[in-house]
Amino acid sequence: GENVEQHPSTLSVQEGDSAVIKCTYSDSASNYFPWYKQELGKRPQLIIDIRSNVGEKKDQRIAVTLNKTAKHFSLHITETQPEDSAVYFCAQMYSSASKIIFGSGTRLSIRP
Amino acid sequence: NAGVMQNPRHLVRRRGQEARLRCSPMKGHSHVYWYRQLPEEGLKFMVYLQKENIIDESGMPKERFSAEFPKEGPSILRIQQVVRGDSAAYFCASSPTGGRTEAFFGQGTRLTVV
């Protein structure tokens, strides 16, 4: 099926702490998993992605992990900063050229 | 590379009018996706197009909505006889190929139906 579930829907963390957002998917044919950040009133922006032949990818304070067996992938943000406050969306694409399906989003707030 | 360009950025229509939203993909991109976003909600897939072809329109309402991506020119999302419930932000994204490649979003068109 074409479904990706995202948790939590809201997340509040103290500045400097880590934030973790998790997504699960149902279609084992999915092989590309991007993450987007959307600030208020702005476009979604790609921040990191991972392909199914990789288990983990890191870019500075952001990392994504993928567990194909369990069909879930996670976004990890370390040393959070105020500018990390935004809505984050996970997404999946299928092996055949097709649509991108998004999770329902996580509103991340960083407390000073 | 100017990125994905959408216009207009804001569009106000009266109930019953037509809305035409345009999306010019990034240079070299031949795949376009349209999404609708209601306030405080997620990105709902509408349609996926390649040049001159609709690949997947499973998210499009059955009536009043249509999309095209001609050989020349931008992709167009057309909403006929708009109703208040059509008020939303409409985003398009483009990618060089479909599936497994990065897709980049435009700034969106915010449609308000009065």
How would you concisely characterize the structure shown here?
The complex is a heterodimer of chains A (112) and B (114). Chain A has 112 residues and is mostly beta strands.
Please, could you describe this protein's structure?
- The complex is a heterodimer of chains A (112) and B (114).
- By secondary structure, chain A is an all-beta fold.
- Chain A is built from no helices and 11 strands.
- In chain A, a hairpin with a 2-residue loop joins β6 (56-59) and β7.
- Chain A is globular.
- The mean pLDDT of chain A is 92.
- Chain B is 0% helix and 48% strand.
- In chain B, strands 2, 4, 5, 6, 9, 10 and 11 form a 7-stranded mixed sheet that branches. Chain B has a 4-stranded antiparallel sheet with strand order 1-3-8-7, with no helix packed on it.
- In chain B, β7 (65-68) and β8 (75-79) form a beta hairpin.
- The termini of chain B are far apart.
- The model of chain B has no long low-confidence stretch (mean pLDDT 93).
- At the A-B interface, β4, β5, β9 and β10 of A face β4 and β10 of B.
Per-chain topology:
The complex is a heterodimer of chains A (112) and B (114).
Chain A: E1 4-7, E2 10-14, E3 19-25, E4 30-38, E5 45-51, E6 56-59, E7 62-67, E8 72-77, E9 86-94, E10 101-102, E11 106-111
Parallel strand pairs in A: 2-11
Antiparallel strand pairs in A: 1-3, 3-8, 4-5, 4-9, 6-7, 7-8, 9-10, 9-11
Chain B: E1 5-7, E2 10-13, E3 19-24, E4 31-37, E5 44-50, E6 53-56, E7 65-68, E8 75-79, E9 88-95, E10 104-105, E11 109-113
Parallel strand pairs in B: 2-11
Antiparallel strand pairs in B: 1-3, 3-8, 4-5, 4-9, 5-6, 7-8, 9-10, 9-11
